[in-house]
Design goal:
By secondary structure, the chain is an alpha+beta fold. The protein is built from 16 helices and 6 strands.
């Protein structure tokens, strides 16, 4: 609409300039006089009515009035066209920011910011430089995902029509897609079928087959994993992050009542809570999680001092990387690096994180991972 108005103003301006009537002294006086007599009496602008009077007088004076009015229309049309083009470019750039490199899919991540599984997905997306939109889910009401039969996070929507569930499935699917873009994400995700079962407690659980595998050809696999054992090692430690490391987070961040309160203060501050929900979550939630963390310690056979289990796990990870590699992936992070980094990152700002950095050998690897994800080093 703005462009059409600009074009109309331009045409009017040219018609004034090219018209023989524009050369007649009385025409502009008549036109402007009629506007002054019959139009609105209100003057807009910082100059008030004085500016309007001077403008009308200048237009009435002499035979150049028609040309002046034509130039004014041309100027207005030009400015309008400029603003229209500027808006179009800005809108195009904004749309491009939500698209992956190479015209890739639009990604929308439904998450809890402090969830280690969601943090894993963000670490992957950031490292590979994949633009994505974040929808923070209220952990109490979960209205943001009421449309989904799958009620956990993370959920990643691809182009608003393909839904990926489970952090490891999301990462494996997207990594497979980045290697071979001839396959669509919807085709790839079929290789990770959903499996429902009932656990020992009688609760129905959902798992996904093949979720640590990338769906690649033999040639593609040889490129991604050039050395023998690399693929197996990556899969082993990705699963370790899900099955062991992630279960050390809660017992450590809720180890004492003070740590539990500090953790929930962080969760409420970073999450999506209403005023009452936030208050309830901080105090009641902290108390509940302090008690639950004791049960988790028993369930996973942790030591009385759960910090020691965290330290051992982290040092085992650093030892597996070894002294000759910057990352488990060698010169660049692989999916295991991103998974472990994503899990550990949720403790940042808490006492457990500070203790881990001080009492283990993880610091230098962790700093390298921070730089790699911040700089989107996997994008190229």
């Amino acid at each position: 609409m703005a462009a059409a108005c600009a074009r109309t103003l331009g045409k009017v301006g040219w018609s004034f300039l090219e018209s023989p009537a524009a050369r007649r002294p009385g025409i502009v006086s008549y036109l402007v006089g009629n506007v002054g007599a019959h139009g609105s009496r209100r003057a807009y602008g910082t100059g008030g009515t004085g500016v309007r009077s001077k403008l009308l007088s200048s237009l009435r004076a002499g035979g150049g009035g028609g040309r002046a009015l034509g130039c004014a229309f041309l100027l207005g049309g030009g400015l309008g066209l400029y603003q229209t083009l500027k808006f179009s470019v800005q809108q195009h750039l904004a749309e491009e920011e939500t698209k992956a490199p190479g015209g890739g899919p639009k990604l929308t991540l439904y998450q809890y910011k402090t969830c280690p599984f969601c943090s894993k997905v963000r670490a992957f997306l950031d490292f590979y430089g994949l633009p994505y939109e974040v929808v923070e889910v209220n952990p109490v009401m979960r209205q943001e995902i009421k449309w989904s039969a799958y009620r956990k996070v993370p959920i990643l929507m691809v182009d608003s029509d393909v839904q990926l569930n489970d952090s490891s499935v999301i990462i494996s699917s997207l990594r497979s897609f980045l290697v071979n873009r001839e396959k669509s994400v919807s085709d790839i995700v079929r290789c990770y079928p959903e499996m429902k079962s009932v656990n020992d407690s009688g609760k129905q659980v959902t798992e996904y087959a093949n979720k640590y595998w990338l769906m690649l050809s033999e040639d593609e696999t040889a490129v991604i994993y050039p050395e023998k054992g690399m693929q197996k090692e990556e899969m082993k430690w990705r699963q370790w992050a899900d099955d062991w490391l992630v279960h050390l987070i809660s017992p450590n961040v809720y180890r004492t009542t003070n740590e539990a309160l500090a953790s929930f203060d962080y969760i409420v501050r970073e999450g999506k809570f209403g005023t009452f929900e936030g208050f309830f979550a901080k105090y009641v939630g902290a108390t509940a999680m302090f008690l639950i963390s004791k049960r988790l310690k028993s369930r996973h056979n942790l030591q009385d001092d759960v910090r020691q289990d965290l330290y051992k796990a982290v040092n085992d990870w650093v030892a597996a990387i070894g002294k000759k590699r910057k990352f488990m992936g060698g010169e660049h992070p692989n999916l295991a690096d991103l998974a472990v980094f994503g899990v550990l990152r949720v403790m940042e700002g808490l006492q457990a994180f500070d203790d881990m950095m001080e009492n283990t050998k993880v610091k230098y690897w962790y700093k390298r991972m921070e730089r790699a994800t911040l700089n989107h080093e996997g994008r190229d």
